[in-house]
Amino acid sequence: MSTTATEPAEGPSKVDLGEQGSAGEIESFEVTLKVRRYLPETTEDSYWDEWRVTMYGTDRVLDALHKVKWELDGTLSFRRSCAHGICGSDAMRINGRNRLACKTLLKDLDLSKPILVEPIKGLPVEKDLIVDMDPFFQSYREIMPFLINKGPEPTKERLQSAEDRERFDDTTKCILCAACTSSCPVFWTDGQYFGPAAIVNAHRFIFDSRDDAGDLRLEILNDKEGVWRCRTTFNCTEACPRGLQVTKAIAEVKQAVLAGSF
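The chain above was modelled as a monomer; its predicted structure follows.
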């Protein structure tokens, strides 16, 4: 005689769905979005444009920009890709601070005032919130952001201790959004300065025990437009959407230059 096993009763849901299984309504609110516009095909001067839109508690600034572009003004231009704070495409000035639009929740801002959105500073504006990133990436390329090892090619991965890996762990998190570099007053006024992001990415390899070109990178950064242009204002650290200790990394590169080794 066979018996049928009794399945345990399903536990209560951890999510309150409200009556009759309804998910309930998400709180909505009105937002005034004020964007610095630049349309080179129609005008030589930039100007402010604004829209009043209905948004929700889970929306971010990027969602508000999408709503304007898709429903109100298709000429609005900005960069975005993954929308999850990883690609770094949508760095812009929001209420005077460099942020990623995809990580900035509307409900965390003062909605009693217009939300001001501008392109990041220090780089040529091509259209609306889109800037020319070529100068930024030129500095990045000059510090040789890749592993250089003069030993024989290994048959498998180059091993590294956990302690050696931890030495440069923080600076591996850079997503090249340019938020730190374009928040730097020195970069705004001196187009030749390498900028924080380039120095951070140099740090990542200077302190990598597998790399053999740290001394060359230190020589490149020991320049009037290198690490010595940093004024330690901490703007870069405050602007980093990944929480990197940018100013600390720059200070460590300065110390390595002075020590003549890494």
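The chain has eight helices and seven strands.
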